[in-house]
Amino acid sequence: MTARLDYFKAAPAAMKAMLALETASRQLAIPAALRQLVKMRVSQINGCAYCLDMHAPEAREAGVPQQKLDVLAAWRESPAFDARERAALGWAEALTRLEATGAPQRDYDALAAQFGEAERVELTLVINTINAWNRFAVGFRSQHPERTLGDGS
Questions:
Q1: Cβ distance 40 to 62 under 8 Å?
Q2: What single-letter DSSP state applies at residue 144?
Q3: N or C: which terminus of the chain carries fewer CB neighbours within 10 A?
Q4: What structural domains does the chain harbor?
């Protein structure tokens, strides 16, 4: 697969705005480990290899155990995730697959049971931001760096 264009070079003002949104999303009260789990799950759904490659090491650095990353695609069947993570992941899936889900009440109720109002808004911002990045990366065919086994990444 060949990259279609470098969106940072093509539209620096637009990407400056995206970077500002990303910076803001990293300064929210949502813990880094939970943000990374959500980013990984959304990127799995969207098939974004570039973002998965970027966020897997960031998730480990944030303290997400490797086992959670290994079973993230099947989080509903795994006992590795607590109620707060399950609520966040369910909401992330619902919003990422909005055309199919319509953001069902059950997912919102699970979210509301675990997160305060401000946290719900912040988590939604994190979900929207990674979805936007996925659309840039997948749409323009961004390529992640190739790594060899044992390089520590």
A1: no
A2: P
A3: N
A4: 12-139 (1.20.1290.10)
